[in-house]
């Protein structure tokens, strides 16, 4: 895995300028549980005019970097994109780096809690500037403090498309989310059989068969699309602790309605619900290195003309095969789900082909905090610090991070 030979140590939160701009750590705005959310998440300072005139407020930026960033107007999009009012913060380098330390109209807005007892306490942030034509993309944190991928796309006609679903412990939250929207899923897309991806679906499929679990009644998981490598292959190359979950989801799917079960659909398989079109990009790869993640099935989802690339936990090896098979031009997308929660996934060549405008980071707070670790551009390990550097280098405008709470893009 040869990458650039530049080996100058960098801190991600330092001054990074590309294409004539300096890029923020994160940017978002919208609403939080129906209340006004300041346009300050992880330190972005929005002035009352809606234009980002102040420096990025990352506490680790130097005064020189702040001065260099002053007056930057390249990253904010269209100012206040949510339903709340604009807010501004102090320019001090020790100022807020999360929404918990900034205010709207004098009231403190709490940052997303890492551990919650009830999913209803999890903040929901909304960005309505993506241009999805009445559809939405929701990245669910739910009650989880760890990493998972649980994404629900709602088309302009109300059809639901679920991507993975997350951990087993996310099942109650996800089930309620689905039932609150009618209980019927049009299509369920699975990337690979790891518990932080398929656990919730396994619970829903199993508990529907038992009495005394009304939370899971009246949920139709819809058409389920998936592709896994053979169990014997996983048993040979995967860590032993992962095998029980793999067996479990395979058994659950084998018992599911065969008319609604789509296993290893060929690349190019496509279907449409409302203004949402889904294309399967690959069948699972059998690579004897990081075999579960390398078997990730990717999907290109087009919503009102905007493309969302779902990568699952796609590592370097599978990302290379996908580019070889599909061609870099077929991977271009407006929004990318960061592979493997933002670490040890994809490659700079892969993300360069995607060239996204927005990035979804299904990352825990613990993982996201590592974006400020030291790194070198030629290191072999694709840490969060390095992949975040790549996103800056590619000019990504907004990073939506699961650690903050649920994210809704419209």
TrEMBL record:
This protein's UniProt keywords: Signal
Record's compositionally biased regions (Low complexity): 59-73, 83-104
Positions with biased composition (Polar residues): 105-127
Residue ranges annotated for the Metallo-beta-lactamase domain, each copy included: 147-364
Superkingdom in the source lineage: Bacteria
Keyword Signal carried by entry: yes
Span list, region Disordered: 45-127
Name the UniProt record assigns to this protein: Metallo-beta-lactamase domain protein
Signal peptide residue numbers: 1-24
Phylogenetic classification of the source organism: Bacteria, Bacillati, Bacillota, Clostridia, Lachnospirales
């Amino acid at each position: 895995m040869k990458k650039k030979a530049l080996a100058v140590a960098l801190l991600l939160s330092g001054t990074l300028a590309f294409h004539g701009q300096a890029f923020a750590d994160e940017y978002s705005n919208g609403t939080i549980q129906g209340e006004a959310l300041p346009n300050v998440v992880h330190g972005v300072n929005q002035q009352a005019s809606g234009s980002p005139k102040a420096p990025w407020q990352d506490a680790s930026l130097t005064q020189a970097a702040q001065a260099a960033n002053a007056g930057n107007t390249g990253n904010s999009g269209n100012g206040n994109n949510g339903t709340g009012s604009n807010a501004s913060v102090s320019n001090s380098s020790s100022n807020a780096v999360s929404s918990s330390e900034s205010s709207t109209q004098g009231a403190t807005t709490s940052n997303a809690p890492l551990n919650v007892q009830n999913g209803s306490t999890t903040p929901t942030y909304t960005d309505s500037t993506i241009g999805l034509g009445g559809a939405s993309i929701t990245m669910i944190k739910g009650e989880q403090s760890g990493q998972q991928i649980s994404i629900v796309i709602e088309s302009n006609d109300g059809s639901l498309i679920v991507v993975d679903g997350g951990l087993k412990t996310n099942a109650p939250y996800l089930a309620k989310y689905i039932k609150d929207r009618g209980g019927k899923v049009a299509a369920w897309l699975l990337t690979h059989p790891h518990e932080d991806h398929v656990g919730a679906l396994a619970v829903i499929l199993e508990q529907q068969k038992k009495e005394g679990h009304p939370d899971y009644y009246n949920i139709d998981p819809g058409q389920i699309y998936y592709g896994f490598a053979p169990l014997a292959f996983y048993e040979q190359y995967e860590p032993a602790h992962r095998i029980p979950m793999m067996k479990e989801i395979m058994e659950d799917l084998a018992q599911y309605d065969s008319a609604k079960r789509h296993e290893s659909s060929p690349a190019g398989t496509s279907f449409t619900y409302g203004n949402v079109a889904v294309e399967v990009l690959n069948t699972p790869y059998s690579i004897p290195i990081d075999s579960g993640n390398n078997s990730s099935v990717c999907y290109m989802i087009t919503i009102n003309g905007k493309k969302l690339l779902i990568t699952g936990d796609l590592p370097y090896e599978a990302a290379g095969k996908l580019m070889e098979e599909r061609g870099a031009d077929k991977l271009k997308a407006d929004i990318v789900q960061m592979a493997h929660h933002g670490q040890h996934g994809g490659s700079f060549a892969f993300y360069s082909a995607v060239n996204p405008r927005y990035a979804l980071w299904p990352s825990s707070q613990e993982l996201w905090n590592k974006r400020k670790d030291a790194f070198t551009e030629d290191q072999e390990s694709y840490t969060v610090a390095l992949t975040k550097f790549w996103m800056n280098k590619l000019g990504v405008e907004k990073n939506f991070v699961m650690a903050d709470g649920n994210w809704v893009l419209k």
